[in-house]
Design brief:
A hairpin with a 6-residue loop joins strand 3 and strand 4. With about 70 residues, the chain is an all-beta fold. Strands 2-1-3-4 form a 4-stranded antiparallel β-sheet, with no helix packed on it. About 0% of the residues lie in helices and about 30% in strands.
Length: about 70
């Protein structure tokens, strides 16, 4: 299911965005190769390499639950 307000960071340009309430996001970058880091509280971070061309690219990313043990 969608993760509202997950963060998406573009490593090469040092900026990013936040997903909306439906888990959707948009980042405008020049054509090229980018490393995107997806994060959400309580989930394991995921890094994906994306090749951006002159068209919209759709990504579906799954962030697994990260178990945290409090002592």
């Amino acid at each position: 299911s969608p993760l509202p307000f997950a963060t998406i960071f573009v490593r090469q340009i040092g900026t990013g965005t936040t997903a909306n309430v439906d888990g959707q996001f948009e980042i405008l970058v020049p054509n090229g190769r980018y490393d995107l880091v997806f994060q959400h509280l309580g989930r394991k971070s995921v890094e994906r390499v994306v090749i951006v061309e002159n068209k919209m690219t759709e990504l579906n990313v799954v962030l697994e639950i990260q178990e945290i043990v409090l002592q």
